[in-house]
Amino acid sequence: MTRVQSVAARTPARRPAPARHIAALAVVLAALAAPATAWSFEPGPWRLGGGEAMRLCGADVARHCAGITPGGGRLAQCLIDRRAALEPGCRAFIDRAKSAELTVMACAADARRLCPGIAPGGGRMIACLDGQRPAVSQACIRTLDAASEQLRP
Q1: Distance (Å, rounded) from C-alpha 105 to C-alpha 98?
Q2: How far apart, in Å, are the Cα atoms of 40 and each of 118, 119, 144?
Q3: Among residues 146, 134, 143, which one has the least CA distance to residue 104?
Q4: Is the pTM of this model over 0.70?
Q5: What is the pLDDT of residues 100-143, one digit of tens each?
Q6: Of 83, 64, 79, 69, residue with least CA distance to 24
Q7: Buried b / exposed e along 131-142 (16+ C-beta atoms within 10 A)
């Protein structure tokens, strides 16, 4: 066996395009919820992960966004643009992701100022901000309260 044949034998076959799109959805939706700051929110009900994204939105990506090239937020934007046609679970996931994105943007400065030593994830940043509520900006408080309302059943 030649070196080229050996490498070819070990190289997995490419997945079909829709499967690549679904796999990329996790990254896209996670990025939707976490802008480029030094920290990100990952509290319990807001935890946006690949498994949840694929479970809730995989079929909608295949149905509505199969021709979209992953990357640059294109899949997330495709789903947002077609929100009315999405399955209820995916629609709720997209709404939570947008809410989390707005919360991160509204609270980033407060988190850097008030919670510099807090590691993101597991709701630690939310708990830190909530514990210092009198010092938190009104924009952050409004966004946190609105997000909390949206997540209630």
Answers
A1: 11
A2: 11, 9, 14
A3: 143
A4: no
A5: 777 788 888 999 999 998 887 777 888 888 889 999 999 998 88
A6: 69
A7: eeeeebeeebbe
